[in-house]
Amino acid sequence: MDGHKHGRNVSRSSRPRSSTKGPLDQPDDPLKVESLSKIPTPLHQNAADYGIYTGESFSSLDPLAPELPPELEKDLSFLLRYDNYHSLSQVDIPHALRSDFISPKSDESLASSLVTLERLLAEGHFLLAAYLSGTILTSPLISPTDTKLIFALFYTRLACLELSGNTNIAAQESKALEDLSSTFYYVEPELEAADAPDHESSSSQHIAPWPLRVLAIRLQSIGFGDPRRGIGGLYEIGLEARREIMRPDIDPAEREIWKQRLSDLGVRTVNALVEMGDFNAAKRSLESLRITESANDAIKLRAVLLLLAIGDVDAARQLCAGLADTEDAIFKPLFSMAEGRYDDAVIEWRDILGNKSRETDEAVVSQNLAVCLLYTGRLSEARGVLESLVQEQHSFSSLVFNLATVYELCSDKAVQLKHTLVENIAKQPVTGHTNLDRLNADFKL
């Protein structure tokens, strides 16, 4: 797309990544250790938890996004072009897990289409949601100046592609945004003349929602085959977050949001360095991060996982010292695994399962126990634990992948067993906690 057509400046190849992979996963590791986190949905949908879908979640992607008055409207028709979007297929999905793609009917309203999309997201049909997002974006239902909705749908499209294992397609489609640091994407805040002296520090506001900007940085670095572009992009928006935090006129609640965003960017930068294989730089960056008491537990937990991925177990232990007892207990067996003490880890995982006073995800803990059992040669026990989890209606990605690995190791009929596993998972009720449109690769088929 030519940048001059819209008044904007146009400024690593990667394999698709499953949404449930944690920082401890290694590309050549035959097993997967679950990172104790659920799949993030592209949009927060509190109403969806109760089966109520309104489509309103697409207007609340970023609480700090500016409201554009009519005189400052932006024409985003370049994001509505049909050739921006790739054709999607279910050929790599096991037949039992396939569902029909949904397209808006000729007389269907925009509100009805958004309700359908919200339901697909809540159920975990991420590939279907990606398809419907692209279909809505290229339909007459969307106004080119409805920036909030267009950005939300574009973000949903990219996020769902990545969650369904189509990261390379998302990376190519993210290029349609071109240079997000261009002046096209900024507007000057409206200030009353009398208030101008009190707001001299106010800066231009970016019209794209923050989650889209963060996601686009990663995807464009993949699409352009330049991982350093991703690092630079994170630093660039990090400087913007710092400027917002330092504004004297900013609301305290907004300042806290920007602080959390800045902490998140720091961890994302370290993660990008780990993906590049530059562990020394990743370690230095982690050491320079100010993981303060104000940082939420999610940031701290991610930092601990990155330290384990780098191999600095001692530093991970030190950071864990400030976590709650539950998190500290969870990381104890992970430390044992990182040091190759799988027998100790088996005992520690079982201790967590036996302590009902702790609030833990028993399914994730059990499957990590199965991994340790397998590494200690107790293949039958590992298989029993994993199969019992499937019988209890669990089917997250690392569990399925690990059970498929066990079948390959213990049976000459591994292919038949894996197809049976697919059939069993296809019959499970929809919970919204896992990606339903999973690839053959998840089952090692």
UniProtKB/TrEMBL annotation:
<dbReference type="GO" id="GO:0005794">
    <property type="term" value="C:Golgi apparatus"/>
</dbReference>
<dbReference type="GO" id="GO:0030008">
    <property type="term" value="C:TRAPP complex"/>
</dbReference>
<protein>
    <recommendedName>
        <fullName>Trafficking protein particle complex subunit 12</fullName>
    </recommendedName>
</protein>
<dbReference type="InterPro" id="IPR011990">
    <property type="entry name" value="TPR-like_helical_dom_sf"/>
</dbReference>
<feature type="region of interest" description="Disordered">
    <location>
        <begin position="1"/>
        <end position="39"/>
    </location>
</feature>
